[in-house]
Amino acid sequence: MTPLEAPMTRRTAAALTALAFLLAGCDPLDVGTGPVGGAGAAVTVDRVPDGTPDAATAKAELAQLPEGGLGKMDGYERDCDNGAACVFGQPWLDVDGDGCDQRSQVLARDMTDVVRKEGRCAVASGTLLDPYTGDTLTSTSKIQIDHVVPLAEMWRSGAAAWTPERRAAAANDLNNLLAVTGKVNQSKGDKTPDEWMPPNPAYACSYARVYVGVKTEYGMSVRAAERAALDKSLATCG
Fold it and tell me: How far apart are CA 146 and CA 151, in angstroms?
């Protein structure tokens, strides 16, 4: 096969594959940008919650966080339905008593062109530039609120010994909450920075700053691998 024949053969094979799908009544395979959570192009999103430490402060705070092992999950129960333990309280609370629960507060803070539901605080529509992916969303149904430091990680790095009131406050702390794409939030789950980082590499510094600030605020411990991953992310700060 000559060099000129190889590209032609590949193009012909691709065309025949697409034709076969169409004849079978199926749509052609999606060969777009790949699954959520994969490495992608860097998209700058200059947005962190108020109170997030700057890079220099975050680096200093990280160095001071106590070292800890992987704490036990005994007693952890996030579910609040049917009398479950609900150790971090009922989501989402109206912490400041202004009539807006924390989910609505975060959506209104992180989105632009926000339209509220008539006579209510809840957000009906708006535009979100997701810091984790760099994608733009206009449907609130596709947006979830992420705990940057996951609640399960809070539990195993100190929160198991807190009062219920302190845990509820931490779970609803606006400094630890970001509006993001639902799919990427699900892919993150309870993972820590050594296990997961935002697929948008340009947000690594900001993510680490938020994470360290929250861990410092509540005096939580970090594991060696977790600290190393945070150090690496903070090293990307400009």
Answer: 10
Count the residues in the chain: 238
pLDDT tens-place string over residues 152-176: 999 999 999 999 999 999 999 999 9
Q: What is the mean pLDDT of residues 121-129?
A: 95
Q: Indicate the DSSP class of residue 99.
A: S
CA–CA separation, 109 vs 237, rounded Å? Answer: 24
55-64 vs 224-234: helix crossing angle, rounded to 10: 160
- Helix extents (H) in the chain: 5-23, 55-64, 102-110, 151-156, 164-171, 182-188, 204-217, 224-234
pLDDT at 47 over 60: yes
Beta bridge partners of residue 115, listed in sequence order: 125
Residue 168 near residue 93, CB atoms below 8 Å: yes
Distance between CA 151 and CA 88 in Å, rounded? 8
- Of 77-86, 144-153, 174-183, 222-231, which gets the smallest average pLDDT? 77-86
Contact (Cβ atoms closer than 8 angstroms) between residue 123 and residue 113: no
Residue ranges per structural domain of the chain: 1-31, 38-234
Q: What is the largest CA-CA distance in the chain?
A: 74
What is the three-class DSSP state of 180? strand
